[in-house]
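@channel sequence for tomorrow's demo:
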Amino acid sequence: MNIEEFLKNEICDCYNQYVRFTENFYDHLDEADQNINLRKYKIDDALENRHFMNDILPSYLSALNRRVGSSDPLWKKLQYDWFQFRVKSLDTLIKKMHHDNQGDFYVAKIINDLFGERLIISGVNKQLNEIENLLTILKEAQVIHRFYFRVDGKYQAFHCYIQDSRNHLPWEIQIWDSEWSKNNYKEHLRHEKERNVRRG
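structure tokens (generated this afternoon):
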């Protein structure tokens, strides 16, 4: 299986899991909560909305954590070096929201990785154009909502976001080349330290 086929399968699998989770979660919300346009709902408004902060977000994270229990197929993938996933903690989420509450930012742009997958495989750096073409095709097919290639210091990776509706919170998929891993982990730690300094 080549890289493009592998990535397509993994991204489509994540999309299918996203749709199942999202349909189940939002079906249990009141109609008003289901209809919040998260692509236009500002972070500062969300922070002031006690129901959103104290009920909706914690419930979403709790549902995610229940989903990724030991019986979930995701755990089987953890036996492979190329796969990682995580659910963001509520404390980390709130810190991120306060950190990014300095401009005209919207919820779907900032709260875009409550659930995240990371695919770390070799050969990505040699097929950047082919992978970008694949992601473009998946975007046109509405499997992913948006993507970009991020370069920040020595960090580099594709970031892809799944969001089937403007009213639903997105998930994130990162695609790393295995040769980028060492620098990417270092840059991630550096970024977190800088955020903590700015908060202090």
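heads up for whoever presents: The beta strands are 83-87, 115-121, 146-152, 155-162, 171-177.
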